[in-house]
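Each letter names a residue; structure tokens follow underneath. Both lines appear below:
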Amino acid sequence: MDKKKMWSGRFSSDTNELAAGFHSSIAFDRRLYRADILGSIAHAKMLGAAGIIGQGDSDLIVSGLNAILGDIENGLVTFSENDEDIHMNIERLLTERIGDTGKMLHTGRSRNDQVALDTRMFLKQSCLDVSAHIKNLIGALITIAEDNLDTVMPAYTHLQKAQPTTLAHYMMAYCEMFFRDCVRFDAAFNAADVMPLGSGALCATTYPLDRQMVADELGFSALTNNSMDAVGDRDCVLDFLYACAVCAMHLSRFCEELILWSTNEFSMVSLSDGYSTGSSIMPQKKNPDMAELIRGKTGRIYGGLMALLTVMKGLPMAYNKDMQEDKEALFDAYDTMSACLPVMTGMIETAAWNKDTMKKSAGAGFTNATDAADYLVGKGMPFRDAHEVVGKLVLYCEQHGKAIDALPLDALQKLSPMFGEDVYDALSLEACVGKRAVYGGPGADSVKKHIDKIKAFLKK
């Protein structure tokens, strides 16, 4: 062993080499260096202000930590696996640089509350970062919606054509999903915005710590209420992973539709060359690989959430080493979302929408059948009777290869004398969409109100 462990006083022999590597987390938790140093600076300032250590010692520690932070960000620091984790590495570096004063830094704290603090700080920034990416995607969708308020396309249930809608209405459906994702990340931020330092290993400390000073220094809005829960809690990580999982699910659903719509069978959208790939053997291929990768990466985010839920389910109160497993799931989910969302935004911004094909597709599949039933209801027929009449009408049209609005009036009147000349205007795609003016529907005015609401959210 190159250097003595900082906790080695109770031990009479070195850690087994395999066990030391197995136990070490510096390979991944080095990403917490900034949070760890800023948290340590706040702790050192508080120790000095509270008179727990001398003010000169506090100032020296803060100066040393700031220098280490600068050196790390300039690539001048190599971390040691022997020091196990980011906390011990920083403390070792500090002590090597400023001498025994560096050993005062850990007064009144444990790695248990230290890692809880670092994780929460990382989570808060992660929530802000991911939310910013989501809002960029929402902005791209709004641009498409504003340009396509009258672009008619089919809407589906069971992947069968159901009713006509507009591309604007469709894009705003995804805006609503991603809006809820922002709300979830905001909730995850609030869950992380509680300051745990001062909880010690699990039962706080005898030192007169000013926890509120540390919280104010680091920008936390509240203090944890119970020291055992504070070090044994990873709910805020689970909240973040859940928010990532739901957002990834929304991305995956959107990607699935883009993949379908870009096929020759649908031909409703053409993804740009910049977000497509080719085949090594089939020269005609243009594959939606970015959409497929986003769809695929959803599974790894689900895996991280389920892994941490499983880790936490059997743990007794307070800190257990199992909880070290939260970091890789957290980092991977953050990295995956940070990669997927900008790609999704670029893919949407550069897509070409085949509007004529969309309208033609909406005209097939009897998407105006519900409107035919509503037409009869407007003439005084009970809805259930109208539903049966139009069902028979659709069956007739299928047998004769006709669209409802392509049948002559006498054919319509054989099924119901309530059909009149005005039925053809009522069943046009534009009329079918325009009449759905209830708030939340595809009517242009309704969609505009929805757009304005989401724009107001983005401005906050």
Notes: The beta strands are 152-157, 160-166, 194-195, 222-223, 269-270, 352-353.
